[in-house]
Specification:
8% of the residues lie in helices and 14% in strands. By secondary structure, it is mainly β.
């Protein structure tokens, strides 16, 4: 096998590479030992003084890119015979290595160079190891700017991007929300997976429709009431303890507060247009405070400490109900949810098959999760569920036949 980088050697050793790098002919001859399992590199004998120099005309004996074998360079026969008269050859030392290492590869230097199109509408600068936002003044038409997976620590130098509608700063090292006041047309802001501790400096962004602030260090919901057009809010995986300061968000239709430290469902009455509420993985022990949310069609309350299925009397539009991994012992108070399509109740303490009668009025129900309940111990577990709810197309994670 011929090495592309060192065509004279089948398996060039480190010393071999150091010695002949840059020379027209390598001062070594690599030999194979051990039946193809072990390779060594021995120095090539130095040419006799009477022999022609290394720069003498040579005959080309084959293309190294062809599969026929390694590249061959040959001199005249009389010259070859002279090369057998050798003198001692000094092996190359390691002293030359630092010089080689210090020389940067020109291709590496240009690897992260980005040429921006001034007329670009969507600019993708994801995963570029960018440490600072700068040199974006030429982007007069940009509407979407993606700066995910970089090393940015500060939001800055965006004041010229007045046409920007979507800004993604997901997974950086940002600690403060700032310098966004000039982005008056911004509709989507994503600063998830950063180090933000406070929601602030969003006063001028009156056109914001979607905010993503997941996986930060935010401890309080605040400074959002002026965002009258906000439709989607994600604050999952933070340190929030209380649902508050949402009174002005009357157009909000989805809010995700999963994986926080919330203990009570409250202060949601003003969200009359809310359709999706996610409060998974919190410390909630009771379903309450949802009476005014008449438009709610998806409720996610899994991984809490809820013991009773209640408080859903006015939420007749519910299509997805997730109560998985709680402490509920009985399915009750949901027979009025006739539009229910997805019922996730795995990981609870249901033991009575008669509880499934609560789902009989949901004629369009398609998916039920009941695994992890005492019911699952029944040998006819799946058959009994299917008989009770004929419209099902999926039981747990398996499709029904």
């Amino acid at each position: 096998m011929v090495s592309r980088e060192y065509p004279w050697c089948a398996w060039p050793s480190l010393q071999c590479r150091r010695a002949w790098r840059g020379a027209p002919r390598p001062p070594c001859q690599c030999q194979q030992e051990g039946g193809g399992q072990r390779y060594t590199c021995t120095p090539r004998p130095a040419p006799h003084p009477a022999a022609p120099s290394l720069h003498a005309p040579q005959r080309y004996m084959g293309d190294p890119r062809e599969p026929s074998g390694r590249r061959k360079m040959s001199q005249d026969p009389e010259d070859v015979s002279n090369t057998n008269q050798t003198e001692e050859y000094d092996e190359p030392t390691v002293e030359s290595e630092p010089e080689e290492v210090s020389r940067a590869d020109p291709e590496d230097e240009c690897e992260d160079l980005v040429i921006l199109d001034p007329n670009a509408v969507d600019v993708d600068l994801n995963h570029r190891r960018i440490a600072k936002i700068e040199n974006l003044e030429s982007l007069r038409c940009v509407e979407t700017l993606c700066l995910r997976w970089n090393l940015i620590k500060k939001i800055e130098n965006l004041h010229t991007l007045t046409m920007l509608k979507e800004l993604e700063l997901y997974d950086n090292q940002i600690t403060v929300i700032e310098n966004l006041s000039a982005l008056v047309n911004l509709e989507t802001l994503d600063i998830s997976f950063n180090r933000v501790r406070k929601i602030e400096n969003l006063e001028g962004l009156i056109n914001l429709k979607k905010i993503f602030l997941c996986a930060n260090k935010i401890s309080r919901i605040e400074n959002l009431n002026h965002l009258k057009n906000l439709e989607h809010l994600e604050l999952g995986d933070n340190k929030i303890r209380v649902i508050e300061n949402l009174d002005g968000l009357t157009n909000l239709n989805s809010i995700f507060l999963g994986k926080n430290k919330i203990t009570k469902l409250q202060n949601l009455d003003s969200l009359i247009n809310l359709k999706i509420l996610g409060v998974q993985s919190n410390r909630i022990t009771k379903i309450e405070g949802l009476g005014r949310l008449v438009s709610l069609d998806q409720l996610y309350c899994s991984h809490n400490g809820i013991e009773l299925l209640e408080g859903l009397d006015n939420n007749v539009k519910l299509q997805t109900l997730d109560m998985a991994v709680n402490k509920i012992k009985k399915i009750e108070n949901i027979s009025h949810l006739t539009e229910l399509e997805e019922f996730w109740f795995n990981g609870n303490e249901i033991s009575d098959w008669n509880d499934l009668k609560q789902l009989e009025n949901a004629k369009g129900i398609q998916t039920v999760y009941l695994e992890g309940n005492p019911l699952q111990r029944d040998p006819n577990y799946r058959r009994k569920i299917k008989l009770a709810l004929p419209s099902l197309t999926q039981i747990d994670s398996t499709l029904c036949r």
